[in-house]
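Researcher: We're teaching a course module on how sequence relates to structure. For the next exercise, students receive a sequence and then see the predicted structure as tokens, so they can try to spot secondary structure elements on their own. Here is the exercise chain.
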Amino acid sequence: MYLLVGGFALAAALGIERRPTGTTGVFRTVLKQPFGAMALMLLAGGLFVHALWELFRALRDPDNEASQPRGVFKRLGWIVAAAGYTSLGCSALRTLGGWPMRGEDAAARNWTRLLLLTVPLGPWLLTAIGVGIIVTGAVFLRKGWIADLDHYVDLSGLAPWVKVSFYVVGRLGMVARGVVWSVIGAYLIVAAITENPNQALAIHGALTALKRQSYGPWLLGTVSVGFIAYGLYELFVAWRRRFHVDVGLA
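Model: And here is the predicted structure for the students to work with:
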């Protein structure tokens, strides 16, 4: 997903496409390609499998990362990630089935409107969620700066240039995710303060907002390259993943 979203965003930054594309647009574009239905089905399957992996991390902690009291926040984060990937997989299936979809930005506005109108202290809850999203973005930015990225992978036996490339793409990808999450959180706080759900946005809206800023194409281009880098990083992790404890599958 990050490779595809980043690729379309880079095309928008270079002027090849008029605007960046979010996840819904990616699904629609994939479906239009030769063998698109099969590709989209595989993509949906991958998203569901990744959701199961995130849920497994929350339940079993195979990397022994959540043993401390504060590890409960990591487990909650993995559960949220599992829900997010499940939602993306369902969106891919809805696109495959031809069901009408309005995009992730419209969904974000609808959820924001629902919370503002029906939940007591809705603006305060939305503000708290926005702050949480910004904190998540800050965590990604911090990981891009100091994270021990080879904690998850086995780099033994690889050429030095491969190891350097792994760190470069991993850190750039973390920073790009941090920027986009921070933009989404900031706009959600604005929606809460102004009680205007139209201010809420998702990945597509965040990328579009970056493009509208001063030096927008440069900002969008940098973030899109970061998204592509993160996709490459995830592929590398999938290839060389290692576990630090017995996961009980033997």
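Model: If you want an answer key for the exercise: The chain has a mean pLDDT of 87. Residues 56 and 248 are 12 Å apart (CA to CA).
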